[in-house]
Amino acid sequence: MYELMIVGGGPAGLAASVYAARKKLETLLVTVDIGGQVNWTLGVENYLGYQFIEGPELIDKFQTQVSQFPIDQKIGSKVTRMGKVKGGFKATTETGDVYQARTVIFATGKRPRRLNVPGEEEFTGRGVTYCAICDGPVFSGQRVAVVGGGNSALEAALDMVKVAEHVYLVSLTPLTGDRILIDKLSNAKNLTIFTECQTERIEGQDFANGMLVKDIKTGESRRLDVTGIFIEIGLSPNSELVSSLVKLNRWGEIPISCACETTVPGLYAAGDVTDVQEKQILIAAGEGAKAALQVHHYLQRLKT
Amino acid sequence: MVDKKVVVYSTPTCPYCKRVKDYLSRKEIPFVNHNVAEDRDAAKEMIKKSGQMGVPVIIIDGEVVVGFNKSLLDTLLS
Fold first, then answer.
1. Mutate which of A33, A44, A138, A206 to test chain B, going by most B C-beta atoms within 10 A?
2. Distance (Å) from the C-alpha of residue B38 to the closest C-alpha of chain A?
3. pTM for this structure?
């Protein structure tokens, strides 16, 4: 049984790994990927020590630093079940591996929120995308829709009006993003904005070729002929695995104390999956560090 | 290292694409990069070969990998 298992390899999990290793805790890091949401970030301008660094480069630096320490790493392992065992916790992975540890730092971050409409899953990767900065240019010259009304949706729409034939911006609410972005969009001639419209379904054959939107005030539905659909409606916490162990808040986040404790002794959480205010790389890293130090104290207390 | 033909389809703005290219460079594996943001024919070719529209796509001796899947790349390149 390990002393500590860290689940998640974003900034919180990696910072926790460094701090745990420096406290010489027998540590296992188990994660689907390295970098988490930083993988979606091309440029970072607010991580202390770097005026500008590319997301991938920052991840490399994190990984190099973690790899200097003798902790066990299971990268590419997706945990599918978390539970309690005598004297600790147990994680089971997709491939059936079971790991046990006396304490856990749960740092699984967030993922793009899904619309949960028919056709969405079917056409993911075949017209539907959650990474506008990645896949946007593939749709140049085509008719596309951006779903969402916040800053990420507005930024995606701004990028797409430059390359797409036409862009529809479809928001369930009035636009909630920054005024400056809305103003920039108002100059675009190839943009149609539908607010207070609900996306009902995504249609297509081999690839997506349209989506149905319903005006929630008039009840009227219309079909938009689009081959690209960019879903930018925010993020959901990856907290399902611990939902039977702790009570999540209304957004699905894990409530923690200022010492990163959950309501279960020995189960700690850090970073974007928690209810900590502000989701930032720097803050997640700090939370991860703090969680590891708190685990160290906790294990010391158990010994005495 | 066995000589393998490696082709990458990417966009300049995609962080995962950069990770793939950095990974290959670090392993000193030569590859041909197609910028599908500029090259429409390459974009069509990528969609045809991978059956999907997301980047990056990596083709190693005919085997198609979608996304930066490091363990799969390790296996295919070994």
1. A138
2. 8
3. 0.85
To test the contact with chain B by mutation, choose from A59, A134, A142 the residue with the greatest count of B C-beta atoms within 10 A, namely: A134
Q: Is the pLDDT of residue B1 over 80?
A: no
**Beta carbons of B54 and A134 less than 8 Å apart:** yes
Distance from CA of B23 to the nearest CA of A (A): 10
Reported as a single tens digit per residue, the pLDDT across B6-27 is 999 999 988 899 999 999 999 9
* CATH entry, A2-112+236-303, from 3.40.50.720, 1.10.150.110, 3.40.1190.20, 3.50.50.60: 3.50.50.60
Task: For the sheet with A128-129, list strands across it.
Answer: A128-129, A228-231, A143-147, A166-170, A191-194
Q: Rounded mean pLDDT of A143-163?
A: 95
Verify whether the Cβ–Cβ distance B19 to A133 is below 8 Å.
no
This complex has an ipTM of 0.78
Contacts of B66 (CB under 8 A, 6+ apart): A125, B50, B52, B54, B56, B57
Q: Which residues of A touch B18 (CB under 8 A)?
A: 42, 54, 56
Under 8 Å CB-to-CB from A255, ≥6 apart: which residues?
A246, A247, A248, A249, A262, A263, A274, A275
